[in-house]
Amino acid sequence: MADKTAFPRQQQDPPGWTRQMDPVPDHGEESYQGSGKLAGRSALITGGDSGIGRAVAIAFAREGADVAIGYLPEEQEDADETARWVRGAGRTAVLLPGDLTDEDTARALPGKAADELGGLDILVNNAGFQMARRESFEDVTTDEIDRVLKTNLYAMLWVTQAALEHLNEGASIINNSSIQAYQPSTSLVDYASTKAAINNMTVNLAAELGPRGVRVNAVAPGPIWTPLQPSTQPPHKLEKFGLDTPLGRAGQPAEVAPAFVYLASPADSSYVSATVLGVTGGKPVF
Ligand code: NAD
Ligand code: MG
Prior knowledge:
It is a single chain. The chain has helices at 51-62, 76-88, 103-117, 142-164, 189-209, 228-232, 235-238, 253-264, and strands at 42-45, 66-71, 93-97, 120-125, 167-176, 215-221, 276-279. By secondary structure, it is an alpha/beta fold. A 7-stranded parallel β-sheet has the order 3-2-1-4-5-6-7, sandwiched between helices. Helix 2 links the parallel strand 2 and strand 3 (93-97). The radius of gyration is 17 Å and the shape is globular. The protein starts with 41 loop residues before the first strand and ends in a 7-residue tail after the last strand. Residues 15, 49-50, 75, 78, 227 line the site of magnesium ion. It holds the Pfam family adh_short_C2. Belongs to the short-chain dehydrogenases/reductases (SDR) family.
């Protein structure tokens, strides 16, 4: 086990692009089989161009949902690819580029999605950013803190506030948390703190929105092979990425998507709110 290599050394600039990854991740393109769990539903997935967001978009579409995705303008190529899979499942794909660290852009996103989809039933707050290329806490810059907190927390608050106008009884909000909320890495002090805050926000909003019939939950992934990793980790860390989990490997985006399907499905999770579902390769989420 000691000299096992998880992934080859590689490096990209943020936000990272799928096609440049070695190996290219598995988003369930060839494996995910739907069974109508989200028939007729409309979903907005932030960061839906790549990684976990793309796998969720593919799964939702195959379960019968129309899907709008948010992403950064420079990720157009990845967004087009996600849209291709959603349309391939016979569903509508709406592409909404924009930088969510800008308040006006973030607040406008749910309205655009609802307009184009004819409503909104599911909000997946998945967009996120981390920076792990640093030696110590003293190296953390204000620019990094701004980008991490604005992407992971401010944008989540802005998008969720604006989405509430469109979410009716039976709607589901799913936030992307992380194992980092429970086992924070020293190199991810700012990122990990946002993920702990996201868990707290999930419980808090579930309490307020429960009486409206809106459920709020989170998924906490462990190490998952997505563009976020080669674009923000030091290359040598990728060689060991995920090997420290009980299952002994990193996960693929395709392995995380079913947790989002479960929490989105009004039939499967009708009595589930304020929970954090771990998909961690065996690391504890309590
Ligand atoms: P990813 O890079 O494929 O997805 C993140 C997406 O966030 C990007 O594609 C981008 O579109 C979006 N984004 C980032 N900054 C943005 C901004 N300013 N405006 C608009 N969109 C922006 O990587 P991923 O790993 O699939 O990440 C998805 C979520 O999963 C994130 O919240 C991440 O924190 C979380 N997560 C990932 C892992 C992992 O190991 N990959 C583990 C736990 C949690
Ligand atoms: Mg991306």
